[in-house]
C-alpha cells in the first residue's frame, strides 16, 4: 500500500475556544471535513459556555448531558476505529494509539462536566469545567486531534482500495497484451471490464470527495481517458488479433495501452498526493492568472507602498507579455487581433513606467496630490491589463468558435472511412495529411484557450483536450491505414469508427468548454447561481428607454474602488457562511447565495468588468438584489415560527431591519438621476446600501445556522448509533469478497458515528 501523506494529527477550530491547530494532518476530502463539523461545533459551544455568577440547575444539567453525550459518542466511534484496526494490520498500531487518546479525552470531558449533582460546582475541592477551563481545552484539543487522526487513517483504506483496484487492472491489461487467440481474449476482457467498472466507481467517489478543485479536474480528465480507451482497447486488440502481421494495427493497439497506463498512473498520483521520482508538479501558467496576480500587486500599493520592489512588478509584466507571444506568433491569430495585442503590450509597458515613477515619488513624499496621481496610475495600469485580457480572450474564443464551426461537419473523418473501405491507400494518405493539419489547428486552439480559461480546473480541461487531439489524431491515421490495407475487414472498420467517435466527442466537448470559458469571463463564478436579471429592450418601463446608458470613467472608478473592494470581501464572507449549512437547499441559504452572486456582479462593475456594463444595468441589478433580500426576510419570518420563544424576538427584529434596508435600496435604485454628477452619486448610494445589506446578511446567516442547530438539538438529540457488530451482521462478510468487508469499516461507517454526536447546546 502507498504511504499516505498524512502522518501526524491536528485540526483547527475557533480561536476563541482556545482550540489551536496542531501542525500535521491536512484534511483533503470533504467527507472527513464534514464529519468533524458537528464535533468541532459542539465542543466549541461547551468551551465557550458563559461564565455567570449564578448557574441554574437547568444549565448545570445541560452541561453534564453534553459531557456525557460526548463521552458516549466517542466510545462508539472508538469501537468502530478499533474494528478497522483489527482488519488492517498495517494501520493497527497508529489507529490503536489514536483510539486510546480519543477515549481518554472523552472520559476527561465527562469528568470535568459532571457538575449537576454538586452544590458548589465552582469549588476548588472538586475539579470541574468551571475551575479548570485549561483542562477542558486540552482534552478538547486531544479529542479533536485523535478523532481526526482516526478519520484520516480510515481514509487510507479508501486509498488502498483504489491502489489495489488499479493493480488488478494493470495485471489484466498485461494479460490482454499477450493473448494470441480470440477465445482467450474474450474471457480475459470480460474480467477486465468488471475490474474497470469497480475502478470507475471507486475513483468516481474519490473525485466527488476531493476538496481541491484542481485535483478534481485532473481526476475527471484521467477517468474520461480510461472510459474512452476501454472501448478503443477492445476494438484495437481485436483488429490486431485478426491481422497479426499488420504494423499499423500494432501501433494503434500499443498507443491505447500506453495512454491507459499513463491515465492509471495519474489517478494514483492524485489519490496518494505524490509524483514519480519526487518531481514537483509544474502548474500551468496562463495569461489570465498572470494578469490577475499582477493587478493584485498593483492594487496592493494603495495599502502599502513598500511591500514589493519595482523590479518584481516589471518581471511579472515581462512574463505576461512573453505569454502573449503565443498569440502574436500563432499562424491562426487574425492580423487585427495581433496588432491590438502588440499595441496593448506596448501601452502596458508605458503605463507601468508611469506608475513606477509616481510610486517612487510617493515613497519619498506622501502628499495628497501624489497619492491622487498614484491612484490614477494604478487605475490606468489595471484598465490597460483588462483591455489586454479582453483582447486575448477575444482572439482565442473567436478562433475556437470558427474552428469548431468549420470542423463540425467531420468531412475529413467521413472521407477517411470511405477511402479506407475502398482500399484507396493514396486517398487515405491525402486525407491523413488533412487530418494532421486539423489536429495542429485544434491543438493550437486548446493552447490559446488555456491562457484565457480563467480558472485552474478549466486550464486542466484545456490541457486534457490538447492531449486528446494530439494522441487521437495519429490513432485515427493508423486505424485508417489498417482499414485501407484490409478493406473487407469488419473489425478494422469498427475500430476506425470508434476512434473517429472519440474525436467527434472531443470536438463536442470543446463547444461546452468554450461556453464555460465565456461564462467565467463574463463574471459567472464556478457553480454558483448567477442572476442575469439585466434590462432588455421592451422588457422594462418607459423611463428606462429615455435614459442614456452611462459608464464610469477612470476617476469615478477610483472613488468607488474602495467601496467595491469591501463589497467583494463581504461576498466572500457570505459564501463562507452558506457553505457551513448542512442543507444547501434551505430557502435561507438559497436567497443568501443569490444575493451574494448579485453583489459580486456589482463589485465587478466597480472594476469595469463583468456583465453589468452601464450604470443602468447596475441600478436594475440593485432592484433585483433588494427584491431577493425581501424574499429572504419572508423566509426569516417563517423560520422564526419554528425557533424557541426566547430566540424569536431577535430573529424578527433582524428580519424587519432587512426589509427596511431593502426598501431604501429599491427607492434609491428607482430614483431618477439627471447628469453625470447625479448619476455617480446614485451609483455610490446603491453600492453603499448593498454593502450595508450584505453586512447584515453576514450576521444573519451564522445566527440562523446556530438557531437551526439549537432547534434540532432541542427536538430529540442523541440518536443512538447502532452497535458496530450489528452493522457487520447486517452487511454480511463474505470470505470471497474481503474488499467489501473493508468498506464496511471505512470512512462512511465513522462518518455515521460522528454525525450522531448531536449534542445539547449549553445555555
UniProtKB/TrEMBL annotation:
The keyword Cytoplasm applies. GO terms for biological process: cell adhesion; Rho protein signal transduction. Residues 1-20 are annotated as: Disordered. GO terms for cellular component: cytoplasm. The keyword Kinase does not apply. GO terms for molecular function: actin filament binding; cadherin binding. Transmembrane segments: none annotated. Keywords: Cytoplasm. Residues 7-18 have a biased composition (Low complexity). It comes from the Eukaryota. It is found in: Cytoplasm. Pfam families: Vinculin. Gene3D superfamilies: Alpha-catenin/vinculin-like. Belongs to the vinculin/alpha-catenin family. PANTHER family: ALPHA-CATULIN. This is Alpha-catulin. The gene is Ctnnal1.
Amino acid at each position: 500500500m502507498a504511504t499516505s501523506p498524512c502522518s501526524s494529527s491536528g485540526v483547527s477550530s475557533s480561536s476563541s475556544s482556545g482550540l489551536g491547530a496542531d501542525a500535521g494532518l491536512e484534511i483533503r476530502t470533504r467527507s472527513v471535513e464534514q464529519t468533524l463539523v458537528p464535533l468541532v461545533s459542539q465542543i466549541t459551544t461547551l468551551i465557550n459556555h458563559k461564565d455567570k455568577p449564578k448557574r441554574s440547575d437547568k444549565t448545570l444539567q445541560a452541561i453534564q448531558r453534553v459531557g456525557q453525550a460526548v463521552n458516549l459518542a466517542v466510545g462508539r466511534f472508538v469501537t468502530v476505529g478499533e474494528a478497522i484496526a483489527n482488519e488492517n494490520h498495517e494501520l493497527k498500531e497508529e489507529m490503536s494509539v489514536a483510539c486510546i487518546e480519543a477515549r481518554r479525552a472523552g472520559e476527561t470531558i465527562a469528568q470535568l462536566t459532571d457538575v449537576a449533582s454538586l452544590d458548589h460546582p465552582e469549588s476548588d475541592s472538586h475539579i470541574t469545567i468551571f475551575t479548570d477551563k485549561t483542562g477542558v481545552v486540552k482534552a478538547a484539543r486531544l479529542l479533536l486531534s485523535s478523532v481526526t487522526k482516526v478519520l484520516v487513517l480510515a481514509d487510507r483504506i479508501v486509498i488502498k482500495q483504489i491502489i489495489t483496484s488499479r493493480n488488478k487492472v494493470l495485471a489484466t491489461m498485461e494479460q490482454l497484451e499477450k493473448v494470441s487467440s480470440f477465445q482467450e481474449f474474450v474471457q480475459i476482457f470480460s474480467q477486465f471490464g468488471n475490474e474497470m467498472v469497480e475502478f470507475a466507481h471507486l475513483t468516481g467517489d474519490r473525485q466527488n470527495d476531493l476538496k481541491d478543485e484542481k485535483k478534481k479536474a485532473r481526476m475527471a480528465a484521467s477517468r474520461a481517458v480510461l472510459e474512452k480507451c476501454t472501448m478503443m482497447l477492445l476494438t484495437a486488440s481485436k483488429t490486431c488479433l485478426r491481422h497479426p502481421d499488420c504494423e499499423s494495427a500494432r501501433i494503434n493497439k500499443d498507443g491505447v495501452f500506453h495512454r491507459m497506463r499513463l491515465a492509471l498512473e495519474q489517478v494514483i498520483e492524485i489519490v496518494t498526493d505524490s509524483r514519480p521520482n519526487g518531481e514537483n508538479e509544474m502548474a500551468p501558467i496562463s495569461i489570465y492568472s498572470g494578469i490577475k496576480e499582477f493587478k493584485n500587486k498593483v492594487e496592493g500599493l494603495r495599502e502599502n507602498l513598500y511591500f514589493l520592489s519595482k523590479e518584481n512588478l516589471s518581471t511579472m509584466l515581462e512574463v505576461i507579455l512573453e505569454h502573449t507571444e503565443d498569440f502574436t506568433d500563432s499562424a491562426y491569430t487574425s492580423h487585427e487581433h495581433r496588432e491590438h495585442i502588440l499595441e496593448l503590450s506596448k501601452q502596458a509597458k508605458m503605463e507601468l513606467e508611469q506608475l513606477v515613477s509616481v510610486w517612487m515619488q510617493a515613497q519619498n513624499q506622501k502628499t495628497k496630490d501624489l497619492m491622487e496621481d498614484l491612484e490614477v496610475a494604478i487605475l490606468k495600469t489595471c484598465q490597460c491589463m483588462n483591455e489586454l485580457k479582453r483582447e486575448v480572450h477575444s482572439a482565442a474564443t473567436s478562433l475556437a468558435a470558427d474552428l469548431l464551426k468549420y470542423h463540425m461537419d467531420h468531412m475529413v473523418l467521413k472521407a477517411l472511412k470511405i477511402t479506407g473501405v475502398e482500399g484507396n491507400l493514396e486517398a487515405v494518405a491525402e486525407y491523413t495529411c488533412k487530418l494532421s493539419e486539423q489536429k495542429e489547428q485544434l491543438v493550437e486552439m486548446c493552447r490559446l484557450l488555456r491562457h484565457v480559461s480563467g480558472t485552474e480546473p478549466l486550464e486542466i480541461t484545456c490541457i486534457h483536450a490538447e492531449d486528446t487531439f494530439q494522441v487521437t489524431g495519429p490513432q485515427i491515421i493508423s486505424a485508417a491505414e489498417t482499414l485501407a490495407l484490409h478493406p473487407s475487414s469488419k473489425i478494422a472498420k469498427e475500430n476506425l469508427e470508434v476512434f473517429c467517435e472519440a474525436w467527434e466527442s472531443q470536438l463536442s466537448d470543446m463547444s461546452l468548454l468554450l461556453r464555460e470559458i465565456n461564462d467565467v469571463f463574463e463574471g459567472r463564478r464556478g457553480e454558483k447561481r448567477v442572476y442575469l436579471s439585466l434590462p432588455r429592450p421592451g422588457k422594462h418601463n418607459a423611463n428606462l428607454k429615455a435614459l442614456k446608458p452611462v459608464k464610469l470613467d477612470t476617476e469615478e472608478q477610483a472613488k468607488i474602488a474602495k467601496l467595491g473592494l469591501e463589497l467583494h470581501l463581504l461576498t466572500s464572507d457570505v459564501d463562507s457562511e452558506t457553505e457551513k449549512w448542512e442543507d444547501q437547499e434551505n430557502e435561507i441559504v438559497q436567497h443568501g447565495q443569490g444575493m451574494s452572486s448579485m453583489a459580486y456582479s456589482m463589485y465587478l462593475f466597480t472594476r469595469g468588468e463583468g456583465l453589468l456594463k452601464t450604470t443602468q444595468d447596475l441600478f436594475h441589478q440593485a432592484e433585483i438584489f433588494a427584491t431577493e433580500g425581501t424574499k429572504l426576510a419572508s423566509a426569516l419570518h417563517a423560520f422564526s415560527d419554528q425557533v424557541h420563544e426566547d430566540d424569536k424576538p431577535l430573529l424578527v427584529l433582524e428580519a424587519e431591519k432587512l426589509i427596511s434596508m431593502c426598501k431604501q435600496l429599491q427607492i434609491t435604485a428607482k430614483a431618477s438621476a439627471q447628469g453625470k454628477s447625479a448619476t455617480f452619486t446614485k451609483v455610490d448610494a446603491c453600492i453603499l446600501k448593498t454593502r450595508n445589506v450584505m453586512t447584515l446578511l453576514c450576521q444573519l446567516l451564522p445566527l440562523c445556522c446556530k438557531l437551526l442547530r439549537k432547534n434540532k438539538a432541542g427536538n430529540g438529540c442523541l440518536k443512538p448509533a447502532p452497535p458496530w457488530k450489528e452493522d457487520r451482521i447486517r452487511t454480511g462478510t463474505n470470505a470471497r469478497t474481503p474488499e467489501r468487508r473493508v468498506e464496511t469499516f471505512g470512512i462512511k461507517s465513522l462518518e455515521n458515528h460522528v454525525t450522531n454526536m448531536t449534542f445539547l447546546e449549553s445555555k
